[in-house]
Design a protein that fits this description.
By secondary structure, the protein is of the alpha+beta class. It has one helix spanning 43-55, and strands at 3-6, 9-12, 17-18, 20-26, 35-41, 59-63, 71-72. Mean pLDDT is 77; it is low at 1-8.
């Protein structure tokens, strides 16, 4: 199980709060972005993922707009 609902806060499998929304843009964050995917993550996961994603040339934003229904960040890093 990747996360549990507890009030309005989602909790990761290691009891860390999923407090950050990570948005990955394919095609750019401007209005014409071809695809944007949003995920819930802990601060550490969001930081690690963002560093790798930017290094790979992706555009990523991170904010605190976590909401119910966001999927958990599938991988912390883009590297195998």
């Amino acid at each position: 199980m990747s996360g549990l609902s507890e009030g309005t806060a989602r909790i990761s499998s290691v009891n860390e709060a999923l407090t950050h929304r990570v948005t990955v843009y394919f095609g750019g964050p401007e209005d014409g972005a071809e695809l944007a995917m949003e995920y819930a993550a802990t601060w550490a996961e969001a930081s690690r993922f963002t560093m790798d994603a930017v290094h790979e040339g992706l555009t990523v934003t991170v904010d605190g707009r976590i909401r119910p229904g966001l999927r958990r960040l599938p991988r912390i890093t883009l590297r195998p």
